[in-house]
């Protein structure tokens, strides 16, 4: 069970690293000699970072890489995993009318992971993109609450509230 949890933790580091633009966290999910095949990109983990992050910065206000069903066949220090995912992105308003859109996509990460020096990391990843759609964006809820951002706001770096230690509440108690 601990191997399964460590493998899932590894996959989560990939997602969080990409969504927070945390290069070190992203790369910690991969062995240095890992290979990735994702969309048009085929190459190293560092190369994937160099390709994907500018694309996400230019096109999207935020991204969510979500892990869903997960299975792992573990044999000693090698594991083969299949993890369903959904990807959601709030896109910049590039349309002539200035409207934001939301892109949704889904598929499966097919990974070979290896335990080296006691750490599970991805050695090979194939990303199977199986569906996508584009939807109009709606205003975020509760945008009119004056102190809504006092506990922090979404950021694509280490200023994001998820990095705060200790996590504190700076909003006054209330029941609307």
TrEMBL record:
Per its UniProt record, what Pfam families does this chain match? SnoaL_4
Phylogenetic classification of the source organism: Bacteria, Pseudomonadati, Pseudomonadota, Alphaproteobacteria, Sphingomonadales
Q: Which InterPro entries match?
A: NTF2-like_dom_sf, SnoaL-like
This protein's name: Nuclear transport factor 2 family protein
Region entry Disordered, spans: 151-176
Q: Domain SnoaL-like: where?
A: 2-126
């Amino acid at each position: 069970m601990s191997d399964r949890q460590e493998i899932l933790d590894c996959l989560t580091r990939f997602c969080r690293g990409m969504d927070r633009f945390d290069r070190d966290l992203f790369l910690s999910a991969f062995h240095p000699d890992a290979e990735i095949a994702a969309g048009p990109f085929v190459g190293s983990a560092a190369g994937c970072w160099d390709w994907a992050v500018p694309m996400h910065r230019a096109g999207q206000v935020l991204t969510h890489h979500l892990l869903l069903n997960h299975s792992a066949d573990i044999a000693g220090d090698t594991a083969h995993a299949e993890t369903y995912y959904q990807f959601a992105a709030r896109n910049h308003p590039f349309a002539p009318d200035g409207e934001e859109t939301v892109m949704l996509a889904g598929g499966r990460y097919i990974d070979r992971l290896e335990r080296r020096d006691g750490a599970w990391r991805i050695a090979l990843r194939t990303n199977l993109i199986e569906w996508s759609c584009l939807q109009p964006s709606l205003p975020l809820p509760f945008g009119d609450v004056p102190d809504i951002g006092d506990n922090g706001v979404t950021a694509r770096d280490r200023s994001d509230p998820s990095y705060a230690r200790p996590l504190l509440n700076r909003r006054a108690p209330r029941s609307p």
